[in-house]
Amino acid sequence: MPKAYWIAHVDVRDAERYKDYVSTAKPAFERYGAKFLARGGAYEALEGRCRGRNVVIEFPSLQAAKDCYNSVEYQAAKAIRQEVADAEMILVQGYEG
């Protein structure tokens, strides 16, 4: 079964409140087996629009990634994030070539 990934590009407007998002989302990430592969580190823009924070989260399956996003725990975190940051997020299934 292929893994799946959340890919998020985020501009944080309120860094202190964003910490609330991170702590509120943590139980959902733990419950659904999330593994952070990139989390706001240095980046270099090559093409297209960029945001200040880039995150890649690996999940054991597409279903786990969807279930995490739709969970009560993550929806509470999402509400905080949407108040303090602008973001694009996608869910992509991994390649097992």
Characterise this structure.
With 97 residues, the chain is α+β, with helices and mostly antiparallel strands. It has a single domain (4-93), classed as 2-Layer Sandwich (Alpha-Beta Plaits), CATH 3.30.70. Helices cover 40% and strands 31% of the residues. The protein contains 3 helices and 4 strands; from the N terminus they run E-H-E-E-H-H-E. The protein has helices at 15-31, 62-70, 72-84; strands at 4-12, 35-39, 53-59, 85-93. The protein has a 4-stranded antiparallel beta sheet with strand order 2-3-1-4. The model has no long low-confidence stretch (mean pLDDT 96).
Question: How is this fold's topology laid out?
Answer:
Elements: E1 4-12, H1 15-31, E2 35-39, E3 53-59, H2 62-70, H3 72-84, E4 85-93
Antiparallel strand pairs: 1-3, 1-4, 2-3
Helix pairs in contact: 1-3
Provide a concise account of the structure shown.
This protein is of the alpha+beta class and 97 residues long.
Principal-axis shape equals globular
Strand content: 25-35%
Secondary-structure element order, N to C: EHEEHHE
How are the strands ordered across the major sheet?
A: 2-3-1-4
Whole-number tally of structural domains: 1
In angstroms, what separates the terminal alpha carbons?
12 Å
Q: What is the CATH third-level topology name?
A: Alpha-Beta Plaits
- Low-pLDDT runs: none
Largest sheet: 4 strands, antiparallel
Tally of separate helices:
3
Which percent range fits the helix content? Answer: 40-55%
Using only C-alpha atoms, the radius of gyration works out to 13 Å
How many β-strands, per DSSP?
Answer: 4
Q: Overall pLDDT, averaged?
A: 96
* CATH class membership: Alpha Beta
